[in-house]
Give the backbone structure.
Amino acid sequence: MLRQGLTRLAAAALRVQEVASCQQVQAQAPVTWGRLAMATNSHDIFNVHRHSPDNNLDTPFDFTEANYELVTELLSRYPTNYRQSAVIPLLDMAQKQNQGWLSLSAMNKCAEVLGMPPIRVYEVATFYTMFNRSKIGKYHVMVCGTTPCMLCGSRKIHAALRDHLGIDFGETTKDGMFTLGEMECMGACVNAPMIAVADYTRGVEGFSYGYFEDLTPQDAVSIVEDLRSGKSPVKGSQYRSKAEPAGNVGTGKWVPVPQNLTQTLTFEASGGKPPGPRCRDLDFEAPKDPPAGPPNAKTGSNKPV
Amino acid sequence: MSTSQSPLAGGNNATNGDKARFGVVTVSDRASAGTYEDLSGPAILKFFDEAISSSWEAVYRIIPDEKAQIEKELKTLCDVEGCCLVVTTGGTGPAPRDVTPEATEAVCDRLMPGYGEQMRAISLRHVPTAVLSRQTAGLRGKSLILNLPGKPKAIRETIDEVFASIPYCIELMEGPYITTNEHVVKAFRPGKKKIRASPSLANGGPTNGQRLCTSQLHVRRQGHVLTLVSESGHRQAARRAANALRRTVACAEVDSRFLQTSVALQQEAAPAPSDHIEVEVNGQPVQILKGSTVMAACDAAGVDIPRFCYHHRLSIAGNCRMCLVEVAKSPKPVASCAMPAAPGMKIKTDSALVKKAREGVMEFLLINHPLDCPICDQGGECDLQDQSMHFGSDRGRFTEMKRAVKDKNLGPLVKTVMTRCIHCTRCVRFASEVAGVQDLGMTGRGNNSEIGTYVEKLMTSELSGNVIDLCPVGALTSKPAAFTARNWELRSVESVDTSDAMGCNIRVDSRGNEVMRILPRLNEDVNEEWISDKARFQYDGLKRQRLDVPLVNRGQGLERAHWADALTAVQAGLKGIKGNEMRAIAGKLADAESIIALKDLMNRLGCSNLYSDAGFADLDADVRSNYLMNTSLSGISQADVVLLVGSNPRTEAPVLNARLRKLWLEGGQLATIGPDLDLTYPHEHLGEGAPALAELLKTGSGWGKKLKEAKNPVIIVGPGILHRQDRGSILQKVHEVVEKTGVVRDNWNGYNVMHDSASRVAALDLGFLPSARSASAPPPKFVYLLGSDDFAEEDVPADAFVVYQGHHGDRGAARANVVLPGTAYTEKAATYVNFEGRAQRTKVAVPPLGDAREDWTIVRALSEVLDLPLPYDSRADVRARLGDVAPHLTRVGEWDAPLWLNGQYFKAFAARAAGDKAAPSQDPFQSSIENFYLTDVISRSSQTMAKCVQAREVMPTSFNTSQPGPAPSYGVNKGGAK
């Protein structure tokens, strides 16, 4: 009991320290906040705005000519009396145009275009963690930390990226290339672990949001290095074509499943025949021999180790 | 005897009311001798155990078939043991030893043979020998004695049916209130009347003299007095209802906001009108208006629902979850504020599920709420504190860190302690819905969400102080009143605001001689429950620049003097001055009593040069409808088209502006002629000045047509027009528009004149106006300023002898030869008339300062010195005089529609104006108020108001510019003492 209590106390004290220090630092200069971003999975710590040299009311922002056409197209999808419904797509577009983050003037511009009070736009922008309200790297690298990825080694991915880039979650590299973030499940659990990279280098038109799956720590590092040097690393699984049962990276390197084991165990156990129960016509007496099973799916990896 | 199996007590101990005591008597020779075990008595006890849900206990006796002994036992049980019901078993047959019926008849005062007949009828269905039984029943005092058959089987057969009527029988005998388990036996109680909420109130609107209702009892709340009225006349019922009431009203007494939403009821047996539905609240049928919420149904049933986010003047948010109730067939508790009531819905508010749910919500709310009640200004009047007394636990299970939120700076009025916020969003909804400023919002999400402006900025509403009242916790409190008083130290007085001409109802809270704060008071006809920031926060001006002794200027500047010296100095100043050479000017804050006293005195001195410092002198006061808001404030809420001429209601009467905004929200259309302003609601700007008025005369199109075709059109002429030199020709233009567009029609008078100072209407009502010949009067040699600080320079010539009577040292006192210290509106009981012509009275909240005196008594004393004594010596006498001159001034709080006289006044006005051919000038119309925060001596002396002006110069007022300064088209400029 006592030990538990002490641990809890220590954790609490640590957190108090963190909050205090973040508030101190925050008044001085824009820095990155490290693990403080726990709560929102975002590098935006605060849900209020403080003016900073690169983000204040005088920071210029306007949609480009081309993007104004997109705005018009977007607005045409909503009834004229519900223009405000377009706030999320509009903010998204502003974020893509503005190198991955929404400055105060970008939000104000959206409010102006939509004819809604700025505070209502701020409410939306602060609610969704995919909107970044402070400056961000050109590539937003988000490591999935949810259970399946964690079990398959996402912590190693995180550690490798952290050590390689020299930044932790919520921080940006000095050269402004990468911001590291943690995300909740992105739905690619079969190919766990994975990272998602939002590429803000090419504006609205060239924006991409790529999944990189089946990662070993080395893969993760080589992906960010490829990105840094302008190459286009392979998206999707690094080792298989899609999500077929071909192997896994749980041990830190790709271990393919032997060819004869790509089938389910029960299939093997039943002597190469599909195990029951099977659908059958109950009105007929079942034949003694089971009907032939479906043809075996022959799959293999596209990238053998 | 198997007493171990047959309980001698039972029921739910938590049941309210008295415990019921039952007597069970087994009459049997053999059982009493111990020959065999008695099965009948235990069978009866077992029945009690199964059937009765309320609390009970039993006395169980076994006696032989001896008449005397039976009688003795029955008497003991009824008279000594106090059993309300005594059941015997056995001894009812035809055998010689069977004497129970005889003994029963012997001890009873009155017989109830019906029970015997019913029991035989029941038994005859089972056995033909039932006809041999001689059971009976009777009443002894307040006890019912009942003979039951002897056999356990027969006992259950009969008592299961017979018992249905017994609880009601006992209730009628003023015995305890017995409830039954309905699956065993359903107690029958006839004559429960249905309760129907009157339609206007089912929506949650409060009224004066509210009534809470429990099944038998009404509570009237008038002022602070709760009156209990029993309708049934039963002592027992009244006692029971009072118990129930104590539970439900306990929280209401703590916080008057609860009672405001308790709905008045009328008890009627009439069938439900078609627009009503019937629902059941805690088993009690209630009829409510279709479309009402579950919460409205509970209110109608007199059941209080705890709440934080719900407020009947704001939209429904449903996010605090405190108002959870149980609804039959619903798998989860339901948020009653957001759930529409459906016909036949069975609502439970007192079940264990509801209690558990609310306790859970409270626990969650308290997780992040700091335990700083001892240093919280809301302490003692905090909804969270009050409700945690009902639903809170004495310990928490949460062991993590509480979150902390940075405080926001909303300006000099509203203090924020955001860590205390429970995210009810009342302030956000008030700002965006009522005040009409889109300043506040909730940013972030989940545990990280916080209320604020995101970018630090001023809350730019003139009604911002109302969020303090709305905040159910201590997150938003009054900045000027921070840490100055605890609410239980304060003495409250119900009064009227004088900061504008609307006459908002206020409550003045004071401690000792100091006004500590001012709060709004509910008045649906005037200010609903809002007041402006000036009305709420200018009170610190009452403590500065005050005049507390008479002052006389004897050539050395103003010096302190005694009253007698000061009055003699006035007398000396008057020496040799003829009536025509005098002038009296009433200020913005003058009350009706002092106005009539001064008028009477000046008339006695032969002077009729009576002016108001609100500028214009030539307004005709013969017809009240000429200068009043004829539609009335509540009438304006029914308007559909509104035209504002030369008015900025946002500064002239902010609470009226909230009403106009509500009108717009409900679909009304508004337009202005005058400066193009941000009025917090969209409106059409028809032009800057007189040409736009001329345009309106074309009723074929545009706003002329709109006014003509409107159902309830309204034109409001602002005080800015009345201050202009060319007001005559402008008013005539307005009159033409009124006539041409039919703004005044059958049962609807849409012509309104608005004023900006509290004294103005009373002065007009009392005829405090210059007479016709005063136009040719010479420049005055003697000027009496009745609290006048905004007089025009030319009205007070440099060589005139000036007397200033008032409460603040401002422009008037600086110019005066003699200063007579009067009282401010919080220090006197005085009559004010608002711009709709409603007379209202202030009350004395704090005593006058120093040597200051109530204003009319000063004039009265001066009249004595001048040897022209006024014929009134008491406040009642003055008011009688007020009543002689203007009878409506004594009908306090009431509003009479001013007589229109078929527009005769317009014709007379036009005839008068015919001689004066001057066309209206082309100058744009302006509001009469340049700076909302600095309008009269009190607000000009207030540091808080000065801070408000300053805040607009240093804090951002808009989200879009980093430049501080006036909000767009708000019209606040620097300095501007007027």
